[in-house]
Amino acid sequence: MPDPAAPGTLRPGGRTARIREAVLLAAGDALAADGFDALDLGEIARRAGVGKTTVYRRWGTPGGLAADLLADMAEQSLPRADTGALEEDLRANARLVVRTLDDPRQGRLFRALIAASLCNEQAAEALHRFYAVRVDEWAGCVRDAVARGEVPDGTDPHGVVAAVSAPLYYALLNTGRSLTEADADRAARAASTAARAGVWVTG
């Protein structure tokens, strides 16, 4: 799986872009602090310093706002690694996941978005799209490994990438403990070893 989004740089785009940035920042802060229930559009408008009508017209519902926040995070996520070796590429992916999930704000934000996806259809669809974008980005590492002969032909790139972050998300959601680089390295090594052994070869 992909990394959760790492903050990027401000994109140009005039007043509309500035409004979106302010609203999404306020929404992310509210989610990280208080969860999905904190996404009251009127309160987000107040925090962002924009008109309530603007927020309701553009985003409509808390689910719509969460969905746009995820879209923005996907747009700003870091590109995949390209080290020339599959395990090193996957290690970079896993360490980025760990850094993001262990970040005080980003970790809470992703917990809130995952929780929102369980009770809000818009948030669920947006979370699925977010991960599809990020998995596809990092799947290039596996395609390159196939081309180098490092892993067998027919290896499922998306399956390998998903296998990297799956144990990290499990630890985040089910144990509550802090993640470490050792966790990241172990996840990358397990996924790359399985890929070389043909575990992810599909019909």
UniProtKB/TrEMBL annotation:
Q: Name one Pfam family in it.
A: TetR_C_11
Record PROSITE patterns: HTH_TETR_2
Tell me, which GO biological process terms does this entry list? regulation of DNA-templated transcription
Q: Where does Ca(2+) 2 bind?
A: D37, C119
Q: Which InterPro entries match?
A: Homeodomain-like_sf, HTH-type_TetR-like_transc_reg, HTH_TetR, Tet_transcr_reg_TetR-rel_C_sf, TetR_C
**Gene Ontology terms for molecular function:** DNA-binding transcription factor activity; metal ion binding; transcription cis-regulatory region binding
Listed binding positions for Ca(2+) 5 are E75
Gene3D superfamilies of this UniProt entry?
A: Homeodomain-like, Tetracycline Repressor, domain 2
* Residues the record lists as binding Ca(2+) 6: D82, D144
List ligand-binding residues for Ca(2+) 7.
E137
Q: Which residues form a coiled coil?
A: none
Q: Does the keyword Transcription regulation apply?
A: yes
Q: Where does Ca(2+) 3 bind?
A: D40
Protein name in UniProt: Transcriptional regulator
Q: Which organism is it from?
A: Streptomyces coelicolor (strain ATCC BAA-471 / A3(2) / M145)
Asked whether the keyword rRNA processing is assigned, the reply is no
What keywords were assigned to this record? Calcium, DNA-binding, Metal-binding, Transcription, Transcription regulation
Q: Which residues bind Ca(2+) 1?
A: D34
Residue spans binding DNA: 40-59
Indicate which residues the UniProt annotation says bind Ca(2+) 4.
Answer: E43
Ranges where the HTH tetR-type domain occurs: 17-77
